[in-house]
Amino acid sequence: MGVSVPLTAASGDPGAIAHEAENLGFESIWSVEHSCVPSSYTTHYPRSADGKVPAMYAQLAETWVMLAIAAAATKQIKLGTGVLLLAQHNVIETARAAATLDLYSGGRLILGVGAGWFREEAEVMGVRFEQRWKQLRESVEALRILWTQEEARYAGDIIKFPALRVGPKPVQKPCPPILLGAHDPKYALRRVARYADGWMPGGLSPDKAMEFIPQIKRMAREYGRDPGQLQFSVALATRGDEPTADTLKRYQSAGVSRIIVMATAAASGDGVEAIRAIAPLVERAAKV
């Protein structure tokens, strides 16, 4: 079981939070990213009553700094981006940052990536919103080339660079896993099957997981890929007793290998205490 921790200046030391997560038995800790929140926007946010983007999104800590501090304070817990808005980042700089973290953490990086839903944020960051999914796919392809080839080059429609040398290379071979955070099954399933190492949607039910995971595996075979190598994670908010042991068993039966619970209270208060509050879920998961 992993834990997603939205860190702000109010949360406390990322190292102490990650250390506590490791001590409590969490398998992985995940960053949360938004680059900025424009003061004026028309995008409707469906998870708030008024459709406004949470103010907290403008206060989130920078992903690579947060995970580097977490890596230095821990020994075993995996370090995940959940998710990195990859289209908003320079791919060469991302390749170097990710590989450096993987190197110095001893191969603990999991790269969760997404294209983003917030048009105004994406445009501020230089992304053509309608092309963000193509840019994300090309960025994923380019990352793998940068990580594995001594002389890397890529010529896509959006991402382009000539032959170049860049290091360091990641410890995980051939590459750290890249999981796609996408929700709309109309498009997400095929995207995962085509170019990702797995899927990490938010809020996917066990029934939907049972329906969609076989479809992804079938499509992966159509692309000539090994579906047995794909990882399936689901990010969940905790509500009352959920996820219960029965819910966790249903996810496991559907082929989900990791549940990522959200320590949302960490954004506005003590991150260590937020981790402790949901720690009983680790013991519950271990009994499944």
Descriptive report:
There is one protein chain. The protein has 288 residues and is of the alpha/beta class. 39% of the residues lie in helices and 16% in strands. An 8-stranded parallel beta barrel has the order 1-2-3-4-7-8-9-10, surrounded by 6 helices. It has a two-stranded antiparallel sheet with strand order 5-6. α1 crosses α2, α3 (91-105) crosses α5 and α7 (206-222) packs parallel to α8. The longest helix has 17 residues, at 132-148. The model has no long low-confidence stretch (mean pLDDT 97).
Q: How many distinct beta strands? A: 10
> What's the overall geometry?
globular
How many angstroms does the end-to-end distance come to?
Answer: 11 Å
Order of neighbouring strands in the sheet with most strands: 1-2-3-4-7-8-9-10
Taking all Cα atoms into account, the compactness measure Rg is: 18 Å
Helix content, binned percent: 25-40%
Structural class: alpha/beta
Low-pLDDT ranges: none
Main sheet makeup: 8 strands, parallel, barrel
Give the helices and strands as they follow along the chain. EHEHEHEHHEEEHEHEHEHH
How much of the sequence is in beta strands?
15-25%
Counting DSSP H or I runs of 4 or more residues, the number of helices is 10
- Average pLDDT value? 97
